[in-house]
Amino acid sequence: MPSPSPLPDPELSPGRPPLLRVPGPSDPRDWAAAHRDALRAAVAEHGSLLVRGLGLRDAAGTGAVFRELADGLLTERETFAARKTFAEGAYSATKWPQNQQMCMHHEMSYALRFPGLMLFACLTAPTEGGATTVADSPAVLDALPAALVKRFETEGWLLTRNYNEEIGASVAEAFGTEDRAVVEDYCRANSIEFAWQPDGGLRTRQRRSAVVRHPVTGRRCWFNQVAFLNEWTIAEEVREYLLDVYGADGLPFNTCFGDGEPIGEDVVALLNEVYAAHTRREPWQPGDLLLVDNVRTAHGREPFEGPREVLVALADEVRLSDCSPTIEVTAA
């Protein structure tokens, strides 16, 4: 078989992710397989890559492309909202109100094992907004106040969650089982404190590093979901409702400093402002493919109007222990 034609250099423009335009191949899967190494090299160089012109049209074909590009696909655990499975390894995007911004974050950065590569494919583009945004995490880290970074490096960040059947993911959806013994074993193995509630719900706490080193390059990265999963990022009217119904300790999720001290609204606003200053965006077009280095690059989602169907794959498992965490985590 002849070698594939070399890919052109991606277009680099301020405020936009690297963009690679390709002529629509007759078989996107074969094209992805032929150019796999070049595409992954571009992501390694730039942190993300938007491929336009690939012509992805359905879930089956998209899943096939995902499998060609990944070193291995992951099954999500500790999810915050149930995802629909479209094809092997291809899931729906996380459910989030379409009129609200989804803050920048790193997928599963609260877990001991997480995807090193995120794959997104647009089958239906919204009529307005809805871009999957990206931001360079080393640049974000450098832009944050040194004293704040030092505190997070020293203490890490604390994630608290309350699982119930009323809001967010249930225990079964998050852990893949309703068997309490299996859930407890998972929590112990992943350094998660847990307590069953009288109503049958589950409350968990886990402390993680907010700054890590990239497992390949060694670059320091701001890697967490401190802002995304904090109460101050929730829309005001929703936050007030949740506090009224569940109380401060019963929120579906919240983040604190590693010592348990609440993170103030001013800190969350600062984090989101720095993210905004480093955000790159490009409106989706049907058939687009976006590859994101999940450690080096944060991603989010803009509010949108109209139907939007973006499929997602979590790929290339990375262990937190291979990223020089600043907080020691000991699993049972």
TrEMBL record:
Gene3D superfamilies for this protein: Clavaminate synthase-like
Keyword Iron: yes
Stretches assigned to the TauD/TfdA-like domain: 27-313
Residue ranges the record marks as coiled coil: none
Required cofactor(s): Fe(2+)
Pfam families xref list: TauD (PF02668)
Protein name (record): TauD/TfdA family dioxygenase
Organism of derivation: Streptomyces orinoci
